[in-house]
Amino acid sequence: METMYFEVGKIVYEGPDSKNLLSYKFYNPEEEVLGKKMKEWFKFAVAYWHTFNSRGQDPFGDPTFNRPWFHNDPVSTSFAKIDALFEFCEKTGIEYFTFHDRDLAPEGLSLKESNKILDKVVEKLKEYMKTSNIKLLWGTANLFSHPRYAQGAATSPNPDVFAYAAGQVKKMLDVTKELGGLGYVLWGGREGYDNLLLTDSVLEEKLMARFLQLVVEYKKQIKFEGVLMIEPKPKEPTKHQYDFDASTVLHFLRKYGLFDEFKLNIEANHATLAGHTFAHELRVARINGKLGSIDANRGDLLLGWDTDQFPTDVYETTLAMYEVIENGGLDCGLNFDAKVRRASTDPEDLIYAHVSSMDAFALGLRLAARLREEIKPLVEERYAEYYSREIGTKILNGRVSMQELSDYAENLKDITLRSLKQELIEMIMNNIMFTTR
């Protein structure tokens, strides 16, 4: 593809022995792992907001760079960003992208005007997509940036805000379907509280549930076949958000009869802000049949905010892909909701970041496939007595009462536990990480 913004050639797989930093050492899209091509395991996506909208600003500092696709006119910038998106994807081999409505096009003076601007930009996007293999992974609406959402969107105390948010989501569901998106994500960035005493928690919970019900109703009305997903996050920007973590969201969905309608989009940095590991949140979603997609990034353990760094920790990607393998893959895919550091000012830094992270996940997939072979027998052995002994099978099958258990336990002496062997597991992990076969 013609170079407009990125002074690099097309990135291809050259294998682990290649000395070319701008090549894939582990990500070989057509290579099969456990019966599925790598590109099918991942469906890597570039996040429009961080990659093409960011100017290097953070909560403590002003922008540090001005990308060449930024123009004085916001609409011209919107068209230029599409050029940048497709050049970027052609050169990296990334086949999917994700976006909020306001990432793609600027906001007008009214929702009607905003939708007209968005339609014009979507038309150009569709023209590009006709001659490209680049596809939409999922869409979403920005219900957190504008001042109208300062006190929430679905949970706002003002019904006009609720209505406006519903209008934005309706439009984005239409656009996502029109572009062939595999899913739609809802992130309640402002759905929470800053002062509990001033919050009607019962009403706000009902409002949030009603909003989600409306989303489900409209999805069915327009026959959108993609998966609806909620993205958990514990805090920031609000003090406490109602979608705190995977368990909280699953409880909420069950309470309001929405459990069958949504899956989860799990983000690594949100997991750590909630006091969990990335793998833990993936596990909770998976064992409940709700792992739909991943926002791949990482936080900094020495910083207490959402730093959204690119994921290059292979230990973490290995444990993440272990859960994805156990899940049989993802309904949607793996979106790089990550940004380069604000001192990384060259457009090519975006290429380096995505290439290294794609390799980190590809290596993680390879290692996770091997890890399962080693770990599964040890896990089965650890719980074997529930399947091999009569008392164990009775407990599992619900064929024993509390009185019977009490009678059984009265004569027990010297109960022994097998060693957990955590150090052995860590040794196995390192052996897999640092040896080849």
Automatic annotation (TrEMBL):
Principal place of residence: cytoplasm
Needed co-factor(s): Mg(2+)
Cofactor: binding details: Binds 2 magnesium ions per subunit.
Entry's EC annotation: 5.3.1.5
Active site: H100, D103
A Gene Ontology cellular-component term: cytoplasm
Tagged with keyword Metal-binding: yes
BP GO annotations: D-xylose metabolic process
Binding, Mg(2+) 1: E231, E267, D295, D337
Residues where Mg(2+) 2 binds: E267, H270, D306, D308
Keywords assigned by UniProt, alphabetized: Carbohydrate metabolism, Cytoplasm, Isomerase, Magnesium, Metal-binding, Xylose metabolism
Subcellular location: Cytoplasm
Catalytic activity: alpha-D-xylose = alpha-D-xylulofuranose
A molecular-function term among this protein's GO annotations: magnesium ion binding
Quaternary context: Homotetramer.
Family per similarity comment: Belongs to the xylose isomerase family.
Name by which UniProt lists this protein: Xylose isomerase
Gene that encodes it: xylA
